[in-house]
TrEMBL record:
The keyword Nucleotide-binding applies. Gene3D superfamilies: P-loop containing nucleotide triphosphate hydrolases. It comes from Parambassis ranga (Indian glassy fish). It comes from the Eukaryota. GO terms for molecular function: GTP binding; hydrolase activity. Belongs to the TRAFAC class dynamin-like GTPase superfamily. IRG family. This is Interferon-inducible GTPase 5-like.
Amino acid sequence: MQNIPLNIGVTGENGSGKSTFINAFRGLNDGDDGAACTGCTETTETADPYLHPRDANVTFWDFPGIGSDENRAAGYTKKVNLDKCDFFIIISANRFTENDVRLAKEIKKMKKKFYFVRSKIDSDLYNEKKKLKTSFNREETLTAIINNCIEGLQDAGFESPQVFLVSSFNIQEYDFPLLQETLERELPEHKRNALLMTTPITSLEIIERKKKDFQAQIKYYAAASAVGAAVPVPGLSTAVDVGILIAAVTQYVHGFGLDTPTMKRLAVRTGVSYDDLHGVIVSPLAAAEITKELILKVLATLSGTAFLMAAEEGSRFIPFIGIPVAAALSSFTTSRLLNYILNMLAEDAQRVFTKAFSQ
């Protein structure tokens, strides 16, 4: 499941905020290593790939605008290979243009999903507030913006277009979380997992959805643990279990954004110091390198774990039923440990999010 590719196409005209959006969705700040170049003039007619920093199977493709030239538009779909993407984000900083509409219709012919995103909403609100001063109404301004976009798309032939208002600098606000939820809901299940695991934390609900998805995978880790225990080699089961725990816990830490690089980027983006974010963490597994030594150290602090592991090893010497008992104990222990660790890390993620965005 971790090797399933997910390709996301992002397109829009120069200045629409494509690059900043791609960076935000990958949990990067503009200027970070591997970030898409912002403010760059589009000089190529091919798509630029940007891998997710934690999962090379998730790729964002920055597509050039389709353009208004008929000759270029005619061969655009094949030239940039739109077919490689699972779905598309069409971004505009104003009303969606004729070129945006033309591209959407090309994607529709391919029977693929596309989503209209109206970017730079925070800038629009700032400018409107500066202009209107005391008569400024935030909700009325947002409603006017989205109605303007929808009316334009309806005039272009889209019956019920859905438009998401986003700020790539404040992804926890406006429609960014709604966009994430919509993408997850409309993707096939195997692709949905890939998106959910790499999507940035924009709300407490995202944390809960990730936790639920991780919990659904525990049965597979437990089954693998049982298989390892069924092999009659002393010490092998423990080695297998530790390897399973390292893999699972590493996935949890990265999925919840509790690895050190992600937390440091969060500190830069929110203005809350890394030390303050780190200060609300309880689990020793967050913001740490997940090693065999660290896993064993954590296991040693959990009551009952040592007894269960000893019982598993001892049961091997029971004639006939020893191996099945050992497999069952190993599966139970691994499931119990992963549920405990998952709950602990999910709570840490909630505390970090609340600390970062409650200022």
